[in-house]
């Protein structure tokens, strides 16, 4: 069977990772970037791929099966929509759109065109997140009480996406996936210290209909490089630490308990601390493989986009609250 043909738009910071994976897993047929200088840097590395600064050239190629969009977030909706309307399957970097209305429109366009639409929520393919999901769903943690995440670093400082859109979208996709519900209450506070209107530091709070709560601390102005998510259950607690090389997931047998002799007073219970083996597969490789499987007709072509729509819906609420909040 011939390998699907892929056209990749956007070869900035992230696009080259997608180029490497799709070159190995499929036929990388087109490389597209608005900057000819950027494009030139990749033509020798991928000599069999055609290069263009014009996205329409990809869309006009009847031999092209799918388009991968890794351009800045504000362009995702328009490029993805045009690709779907041209009959291409689409994998689009997160967030797939800037508003829920746009994300809904993309979903409807994909459905009408009978094409795959998959937003690139990378962390959902992380074997450690899959492990945490298994623990949550199996009830190993007892009832989940709350979740919090920290994603901070003195890292890439962006001018076109704030920390919520750039960093928070990762944690938000995982939190919604783990809890399997959408929040009924959201707020975000943050501040733009460097570029007006682009928040470098954001704190988010989510409350869910079940009573669970979640918090995210997002920043690219921080001395610590932290990528951590903690799920607190009433029986056990689990930490996913993506900065750890081996112990990505740690399970703590800790929790509150009420011994009968204390007449209703709560005490803490501590037990073993363990760390399950987590496969070292590259999450991006798994994500790209999933997209190719969908293009190949295996799996629900719109499921990821439906989950992605919920992420955009919550992002939009958080963003509105961020703008409305006093600095
Ligand atoms: N999944 C992840 O972990 C992850 C990590 C980093 C970035 N991203 C996402 O990837 C996307 C790109 O981020 P980045 O850091 O690579 O940005 P970037 O600014 O470094 O690169 C974007 C590239 O797109 C090109 N471009 C802009 N408009 C274009 C258009 N209309 N047609 C073709 N090319 C165009 C630019 O010339 C640039 O080279 C963002 O949505 C970002 O959120 C995802």
Into which percent range does the helicity of residues fall?
25-40%
CATH-assigned homologous superfamily of the largest domain: Dihydrodipicolinate Reductase, domain 2
Secondary structure tally: strands: 14
Which stretches of 5+ consecutive residues score pLDDT under 50? none
CATH class of the largest domain: Alpha Beta
| Proportion in β-strands | 25-35%
Query: What structural category do the secondary elements indicate?
Result: alpha/beta
CATH fold field value of the largest domain: Dihydrodipicolinate Reductase, domain 2
The gyration radius over C-alpha positions equals 21 Å
Q: Alpha-carbon distance between the termini?
A: 57 Å
How would you sum up the global shape?
A: globular
Strand order in the largest sheet: 8-9-10-7-11-12-13-14
Sketch the topology as an H/E string, one letter per element: EHEHEHEHEHEHEHEEEEEEEHH
What oligomeric state do the depicted chains represent? single chain
The distinct bound ligands, ions and cofactors come out as: nicotinamide-adenine-dinucleotide
Overall average pLDDT = 95
The largest sheet, given as strand count, sense and whether it forms a barrel, is: 8 strands, mixed
- Work out the helix count: 9
Counted up, domains total: 2
CATH architecture name of the largest domain: 2-Layer Sandwich
Relevant terms:
2 domains, globular, 327 residues, alpha/beta, six-stranded parallel beta sheet, eight-stranded mixed beta sheet, binds nicotinamide-adenine-dinucleotide, single chain, Dihydrodipicolinate Reductase, domain 2, 9 helices, Rossmann fold
């Amino acid at each position: 069977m011939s390998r699907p043909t892929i056209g990749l738009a956007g070869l900035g910071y992230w696009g080259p990772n997608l180029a490497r994976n799709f070159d190995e897993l499929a036929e990388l047929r087109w490389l597209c970037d608005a900057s000819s200088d950027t494009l030139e840097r990749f033509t020798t590395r991928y000599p069999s791929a055609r290069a263009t600064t014009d996205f329409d050239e990809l869309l006009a190629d009847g031999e092209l099966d799918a388009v991968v969009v890794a351009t800045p977030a504000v362009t995702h909706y328009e490029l993805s929509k045009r690709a779907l309307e041209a009959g291409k399957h689409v994998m689009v970097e997160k967030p797939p759109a800037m508003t829920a209305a746009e994300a809904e429109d993309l979903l409807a366009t994909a459905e009408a065109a009978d094409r795959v639409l998959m937003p690139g929520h990378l962390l959902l393919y992380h074997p450690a997140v899959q492990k945490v999901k298994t623990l949550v769903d199996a009830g190993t943690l007892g009832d989940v009480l709350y979740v919090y995440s920290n994603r901070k670093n003195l890292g890439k400082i962006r001018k076109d996406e704030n920390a919520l859109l750039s960093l928070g979208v990762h944690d938000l996709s995982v939190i919604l996936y783990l809890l399997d519900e959408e929040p009924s209450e959201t707020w975000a506070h943050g501040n733009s210290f460097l570029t007006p209107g682009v928040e470098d530091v954001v704190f988010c709070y989510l409350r869910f209909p079940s009573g669970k709560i979640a918090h995210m601390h997002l920043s690219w102005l921080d001395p610590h490089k932290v990528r951590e998510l903690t799920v607190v259950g009433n029986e056990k607690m689990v930490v996913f630490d993506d900065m750890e090389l081996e112990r990505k997931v740690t399970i703590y047998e800790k929790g509150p308990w009420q011994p009968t002799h204390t007449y209703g007073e709560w005490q803490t219970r501590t037990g073993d601390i363990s760390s399950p083996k987590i496969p070292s597969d590259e999450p991006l490789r798994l994500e790209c493989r999933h997209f190719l499987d969908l293009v190949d007709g295996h799996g629900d072509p719109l499921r990821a986009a439906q989950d992605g729509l919920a992420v955009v819906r919550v992002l939009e609420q958080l963003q509105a609250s961020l703008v409305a909040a006093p600095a």
